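Worked example 2:
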Amino acid sequence: MGHASITTFLKHYLSRRITVDTQAVERQRQRHALLWDIKKRWEFEQPVRDVERQLAGLETKDNPELVHDVMLPAQGELADSVLSKPGTTIEEEMDRRNRAICAVTLYCGIEEGGMKPIQIGGQSRNAAPPVKSQLEYEEEALEAAKVLVYKEKRPKVCFL
């Protein structure tokens, strides 16, 4: 193509009709920018508002009954017990904790302490190796240095 000449541009591009509504495109860009700005502000400001409402003792806007309609009974019991408000006395708190443990056990289907570690060579896999003291580490380093000095090949000629 002869791009060096203006006639190519005039023949191919100038005669075309622009069918895009440029104002609609601009409105779409502005709408997208506004939604993005609202989303970013929501992400940063809403958690602060929620914490302030909780500290003030106000109820949250979330409706837990709507969530329970789509959950299985075990899931609903788990959500209720884990997300329940703490008790005012130690007995209420212990009861709440025990209900949460039972709900987790019911939902997961595994009893606490039911699995035993596999024994390998008389030790369990979870057993930690014995801890060495700083003195033992220093003695090992000294022995390694001695072995290195005695086994290292040294030059026979002195360089002056």
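The beta strands are 119-120, 123-124. The chain has a mean pLDDT of 75.
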